[in-house]
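Write out this protein's structure.
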Amino acid sequence: MLGVNRNFNSRWQLGGDIKLYNISGTPASGALPETIGTGNILVYTLQGIATGLLTKRDISVLSLSYIDSRSYTGESASLSYRSLFQDKWTFDVALRYYTQHDNAGTDLSRWSTNLRLGYRWRDRLTLEGEYGYEKTLTESTATSDDSSRHYFSLGYRWDF
């Protein structure tokens, strides 16, 4: 990965990075079939980051990415917002869109959003609750699939 960030003033910064992934394949093992390696996957990302945009203690991030590999291309856009209030509470919200086209002629598009609320208990323990929704449309010459899912989680994070 290679990335740069540039501060424009006390509120705004612009960042960009290039990531290179290459995941190896695996041989067949028992009932599991062989998997083929990915080859090089390049991800180009541009981010605009703002602090204190809506409240004194928040962070907003707009991110745009382009993914290029030997078997597919993809684009994504996301907007996320995090606010800290009353010293112990955090509120996060995110909206994402992803689209992909592969060499077999399959197109995928996905919208997702999630909300997370956290409460910092003591110095190193945070209690968190998260709800998310995802809608995916996959189309090829032979099939079309429109699916959605809701998910939630409750848990804690221990920072040690």
